[in-house]
Fold this sequence. Notes:
Blueprint: E1 3-7, E2 19-24, E3 29-31, E4 36-38, E5 43-47, E6 51-55, E7 60-61, E8 64-65, H1 72-80, E9 90-93
Antiparallel strand pairs: 1-2, 2-5, 3-4, 5-6, 6-9, 7-8
Amino acid sequence: xxxxxxxxxxxxxxxxxxxxxxxxxxxxxxxxxxxxxxxxxxxxxxxxxxxxxxxxxxxxxxxxxxxxxxxxxxxxxxxxxxxxxxxxxxxxxxxxx
Length: 97
């Protein structure tokens, strides 16, 4: 699946992440009770045992929560810069497929 790109220290990320991976989201599906959203492009952060990273108030597509999805280059830049600025609203999602 995804390629492990780095191990980030827990203290640097507020204890949120373990082994952080950047994974291609293409083809993953996320759903609410009545709607399924299929991801057609983008990359996201993934942590084994937690799922795909999202933000509580981000990416609500027709009532379906989806992961934070951007280019691989953007995610690489976030990691190289030392991580995110705040983590209070991070949540973890699991695809339905």
